[in-house]
Amino acid sequence: MGSRTDTGHTAALVLITAVELVVFLDTTVVNIALPSIGAGLRLDEAGLAWVTNAYLLALGGCMLVGGRAADLLGARRVFGAGLALFTVASAAAGFAGEAWVLVAARAVQGIGAAVTVPAQLALLTRTFTEPDARRRAFGVWGAMGAAGAAIGTATGGLLTDGPGWRSIFLINLPVGVVALSAISRLLPADPPRRAGSARRLDLPGAVLGTSGLLLAGYAFGALADRAGRTWAAILPAVALALLAGFVATEARSAEPLMPLRLFRIRQVTGSAVVNALVGAAHVPAFALLALYLQNTQHYSPTRSGLAVLPVAAAGLVASRTAIPAAVKRFGARTLLAAGLAAQAAALAWFATLPPTVDYLGDVLPAALLLGVGLPASFVGVTAPAVTAVDQADAGVTAGIVNTAQRIGSGLGVTAVLVLASTVTGTAGYLAGLRAGFAASAALAFLGCLLTLVLLRPSRESQEDGDGTAATAADRRPA
Predict the structure, then answer these.
(1) How large is the average pLDDT for residues 455-464?
(2) Helices 429-454 and 394-427: angle between axes, nearest 10 degrees
(3) CA-wise closest residue to 288 among 347, 340, 223
(4) Is 243 exposed, middle or buried (0-12, 13-18, 19+ CB in 10 A)?
(5) For 238-294, how does the pLDDT look when each residue is reduced to its tens digit (9 = 90+)?
(6) How many other CB atoms are found less than 10 A from the CB of residue 431?
């Protein structure tokens, strides 16, 4: 009986983490294909930026709604709906004949992913209730996020050089179809809703929060574009007004989209702040590395993609071996700080890359260090927040923490690449790339420091070994 249960849990973990891999993969898979997409759809650099940003902005802007929907409608049901939307949008992107169709399809992909990710975490929390099993499950889930960024870069190169850029989206179709067919058999059923306990989605909060987050991300990107700075100057004020209205609405709502009481829990607030820096540090680093290898070392897209695969390999190995043991022995806070320190060291290493590279000596060591640091950060920053709240709030908590990372990713990509471009104009291309890597390293180091400050244990209670204890003291404001 126990063996059958273990087998079922393993199959559920494979399903959830496979979808997580695809979702993260789509944040980077387009990077190497952008020149081919531009040639095929007659897009300039500004238009190509929105092929990436449409996905990131929709993913970050809609995740709060996805998290609360998972709590209200059921994690399995919402997981399936989000995956179906993501799969259909992938088909639309693959067959897009016009640039606007591709950008719109990428935005819908992001919405589907935003609905899916919080439901994944809620399902993991519900499926794996035993502490050791939960640590292992979150370790594998974290590795899929880390591996997705690296595998996306590698896959993008192979597919672009092979079948062509459309295949980077169409490859999602078989994964989506197989996963959708297995949901009812492998994932735990949603608990029945008791009569008289129905809760409603906070529609005013959903509109204000989602539009505010989307506009904030769009405004930042527009301000970074010199051509759009004049008219874009008013957008941040509008975005702030929408977000202020969102907070005011949530404070008065009987059934808020984002319960403000959650931010009184130190694990939730600290995890959200640090996770924004996790995203801001690592996502632009993959774009910078691809630019370095292709534009200064003249690697082909395929070779450039394969060069970052050690990041994925190191992450997968660490997630199955060292990370579960480390979180059990040292706690999630220590694991998170160590993961961010490893990221900072790897990115600082990349900031010293020479004009002519020796891959084994100059790139591989930092790639392996980054591969270990990323899943350690993902596990360390996610598990404490999700397990510190009641089951009924697990989805929206996952949405809060992951929204922070996606927003951080979008802002980080824009800020770091603008910095790199600015330095390039005065000191040369390689100097610009080095400046971008140095900025990413500084963001990771700041995240490490804030982990030690914001996620410190309370005097009244120490964390459990897995870092997931949430006592009354832990729930006080940080």
Answers:
(1) 53
(2) 150
(3) 347
(4) middle
(5) 888 988 998 888 888 877 877 888 888 888 888 899 999 998 998 888 888 888 988
(6) 13
